[in-house]
Specification:
heterodimer, A: about 280 residues, alpha+beta, Protein Transport Mog1p, Chain A, 8-stranded antiparallel beta sheet, 14 strands, about 30% strand, B: about 290 residues, 9-stranded mixed beta sheet, about 15% strand
């Protein structure tokens, strides 16, 4: 792997297998099978781009699409490239030149590599994102990304070239934009980020590092204990930033047009986490 | 005084203070003194031909040769290709051609066209080599001709001109991650500095997202050759093309993430050229549909 390795080792990567299919009448087809340690990691790689046409490669995928947890596609095809999340496998099957015959061959290969897979659901952290906030802000589910690495985060939403959120392979993180259209027809977009650390202490330490780097002018206003009790909000440039700690979770919202929006988005998503925790306890 | 390194964040990028912050963090507090002279305007030529590739993306080598000839003549202002080359290199030069080696590589047809053109202009074939690789490659050359492929890169924003020499560093991983803004320093290594006589960007079939791994949804037939000697001006123009293509695809601004800090740093910290569009003179010839500039 030379040139894109950091992307894959930004998840829990196990090994890669590469195959090339040749044909006398067609251009080659390249098959890359990325074996990850968990289904979540394969899901994360696919989540980096939900574009393309969803395709069902197995009957179990067709059935699972009706289930409540089947919120995301498992296989996406576009212009010769098929990308697949199937349990712990992330696959890229690419025809060097797209023709109807090449597309069919790509899909046949896709069906073969996903045969007998269980199709586990996407990571639970993506399930807590509130789809709508008070009929005002709508989640862009098609841009929800699951990740663990700050490099991957920076490729989605640039925060800092340094790892100021202490991200690593032990965390589960999701980010997505929320959007609303104003009365004047303008579209506003904010960025929501939710990270689940390995324990509350790690979350607190990460928030401390983040605040120090991102909001140095508010050094005096920062206390970890406050962010556990209530969300904190800061005017940074011409937008608002808000964050809150909840156990091992750190929720941050960027680019808000006002404090109230930040408050609503943080509040609703933290509420969802609490409800999910209560459901698990019961 | 407490010596605390300020951490670069998104806010510096939005405020437009990234150059100063990068300068201080990469070179130290006297970064502005380290900057080389990069004043004046830089010429970038773009030659395009709608038929440079067919519908199946096969390169038409005759048309490509014409595009190369036109590029050389227009860029140098000479009357013919031979004079154009001889204004850039000497027959005694050991010339290294530096293509993008893999993952959306430079078209082989372009590398071959450049080599043939040099030979036809009187450069001995034995004086021309492929100089992509480790530090020994540029050390063996007296002149370099960069032939990067135009592509976005998920770690550096853009992976075209400034990133082309990354293997010359001998430690390419040192220029990934948060250190990609230092890519410009490779161009100032003693065995690299001053050797680049021309950079010819392969913009026949660029990639505007998810690079370096190819994703055909983000590739398109631009059918162009982009030439210059200022690597920063070239990457700035290439960035503009990529950004405009991304916006056209989504119908809304679609910024590169991470932002290509290496381009601004190459200008403001390493003094390799200009990243300001107003200081770049762009001359365009040929097909002008969807020029994206």
């Amino acid at each position: 792997m030379d040139g894109a390795g950091e992307l894959y080792i930004g998840y829990r990567f196990n090994h890669l297998e590469v195959y090339e299919y040749t044909s006398d009448s067609q251009d080659d087809i390249l098959v890359e099978l990325y074996f990850m340690d968990t289904s979540d990691d394969a899901f994360g790689l696919l989540s980096l781009d939900w574009g393309g046409d969803p395709v069902a490669l197995s009957s179990s995928q067709e059935n699972s699409s009706a289930g409540p947890k089947a919120r995301f596609s498992r296989a996406l095809y576009g212009e010769g490239l098929l990308r697949i999340w199937s349990d712990e496998l992330y696959a890229r099957v690419m025809a060097y030149r797209e023709t109807p015959e090449a597309k069919e061959a790509v899909l046949v290969i896709g069906r073969a590599v996903t045969a007998n897979q269980k199709n586990l659901p996407g990571h639970e952290i993506t399930e807590v994102l509130s789809p709508v906030i008070e009929s005002e802000w709508t989640l862009r589910k098609d841009r929800a990304r699951f990740f663990r690495s700050y490099l991957v985060l920076n490729s989605i939403y640039y925060i800092s070239p340094q790892n100021i959120l202490d991200l690593d392979l032990s965390v589960d993180a999701v980010t997505a934009p929320y959007e609303k259209t104003t009365e004047s027809g303008d579209r506003k977009r904010v960025r929501f980020l939710l990270v689940k650390y390995i324990n509350p202490e790690s979350a607190q330490q990460a928030l401390s590092h983040f605040h120090e780097a991102f909001c140095p002018e508010y050094k005096k206003e920062f206390r970890v204990a406050s962010a556990i009790q209530d969300p904190l909000f800061f005017e940074v440039g011409d937008s608002w930033l808000g964050y809150r700690l909840h156990g091992s979770h750190l929720a941050i919202v960027f680019d808000c047009p006002d404090r109230e929006s930040a408050q609503k988005i943080i509040h609703q998503n933290i509420l969802n986490i609490k409800e999910k925790e209560e459901t698990i306890e019961k | 005084m407490k010596n605390e390194k300020k951490k670069l964040t998104r806010r510096d990028f939005i405020r437009g203070t990234v150059g100063a912050t990068l300068g201080a963090s990469l070179v130290g507090l006297n970064w502005s003194k380290a900057r080389g002279a990069a004043d004046g305007s830089s010429l970038v030529t773009i030659v395009r031909d709608k038929n440079a590739m067919d519908a199946a993306k096969n390169v038409n080598t005759d048309i490509l040769k014409n595009m190369l000839d036109q590029t050389l003549i227009k860029f140098t202002g000479k009357n013919n290709v031979k004079d154009a080359w001889l204004s850039l290199v000497k027959p005694s030069d050991k010339i290294g051609l530096v293509p993008t080696p893999h993952l959306n590589p430079t078209h082989e047809e372009l590398v071959n066209a450049v080599k043939s053109s040099l030979i036809d202009s009187g450069i001995p074939e034995e004086n021309i080599s492929n100089a992509q690789g480790g530090p020994d490659k540029p050390k063996a050359c007296t002149a370099l001709i960069g032939l990067p492929g135009l592509k976005a890169h998920w770690l550096t924003g853009i992976g075209t001109v400034l990133k082309l020499y990354i293997l010359y560093s001998g430690s390419p991983r040192s220029y990934h991650q948060q250190d990609n803004s230092k890519l410009g320093e490779i161009w100032n290594l003693p065995f690299v500095k001053g050797k680049t006589r021309l950079v010819l960007v392969d913009a026949l079939h660029p990639l505007c997202d998810k690079g370096p791994q190819p994703d055909p949804r983000y590739k398109w037939a631009y059918n162009g050759l982009i030439a210059g000697t200022d690597p920063v001006a070239l990457d700035t123009v290439c960035l503009k093309i990529i950004m405009n293509k991304r916006e056209a695809l989504r119908g809304e601004p679609w910024p590169l993430s991470p932002p290509p800090l290496c381009v601004e740093a190459a200008d403001k910290v390493y003094g390799l050229g200009t990243s300001r569009m107003e200081n770049i003179k762009i001359e365009h010839y040929g097909w002008d549909e969807d020029l994206l500039l």
